[in-house]
Amino acid sequence: MIASVAAGALVGGRSWAGPPATLAAAARTAGLRFGAAVRASALDQPRLRDILAREAATLTPELELKWAALEPAAGRRDVAGADRIAAFARSHGQRLRGHTLLWHRSVPDWAARELASGGGWGIVDHHVTATVGRYGALVDEWDVVNEPIEIGARADGLRANVFLEAFGSDYVARALRTAHAAAPRARLFVNEYDLEYDLPTHRARRAALLRLATTLARRGAPLHGIGIQAHLDLGKGMIATDELRGFVAALAALGLTVAITELDCKEVDYIRPADERDRLVAAHVAGFLAAVLPHPATSAVSCWGLTDDQSWLEVTAADRARFPGAWADGSSPGLNRGLPFDAAGRPKAMRDALLAAFAAHPRS
Ligand code: XIL
After folding, report:
1. Does the beta carbon of 143 sit less than 6 angstroms from any atom of ligand 1?
2. Which domains can be identified in the chain, with CATH numbers?
């Protein structure tokens, strides 16, 4: 339906371009929110600014709200990048997804040292309260804890990070309570990766995350949702459709909402023609969305960037090595094509897949 509108529907015998179907508008019509991650430095690009302003209802600062970026030295807060994204969002009527308060990969060295030597919860409290307090209602969702699960480490499936070492497994609930006190109206999330495939680690991670969510819900912690990162990968086989559906339903039964927070797709084959690659990515993304969007508990989809040139996904040396002789003439495999727009800002098949999925799954 959307495709025919985009192609120009016939109205009264005359061609009518129809309303511009943006991802933000299509999601809104379906009762969903669409957003994208962005780095402050990318806001220098006029073309990207236009695409972000048009297509996204929420922005996720890709780096700028992480603790190591915000407070590189004790007591020295650097909010310039986050403020820049916040100002862009305000002037375009967008909200921010707050990513992320506690993540084992973004703890500044000074904080890690203090936490490990018994510095106490005050360090976390100050960071969370200052960060959440600065942006007020502009940030209506926070990823309070990012990637708390680690498979193969502990029996309870929790990652033995600096927070767990310092405060025990209750640190997740405690962080949620601290964030809730600072932003009583914000929806608070635990965000996690490797949940999407029919692989042993993904199966174990879904189970461990569901256990954590169940414990938090039973204890009355202010947890409102689970973020499924959704860094898809064409090399990981089939999407675990039935299991993902069951996972979303189980989270919903706990009263939780589900957000797709970091959608993108790593490719495997970099030598096919670009349009074929784009169709493979789009079909895979469509398969994933068909698993998570039917349940009304799924409330939002964010991509981890919008244009391929901004993606954190790279064509690596190992990727190149799979195609001996290719690019020997000095040409290049180019970019990974795992986002809705190409480097020139042209929409790709992945964008059509998102539009079609939103149209197919309206919330009642
Ligand atoms: C990534 C950024 O995209 C990179 O630029 C940065 O170097 C590392 O972090 N899961 C997350 C995100 O929750 O914060 C990560 O973002 C990607 C994986």
Report:
1. no
2. 9-311+331-360 (3.20.20.80)
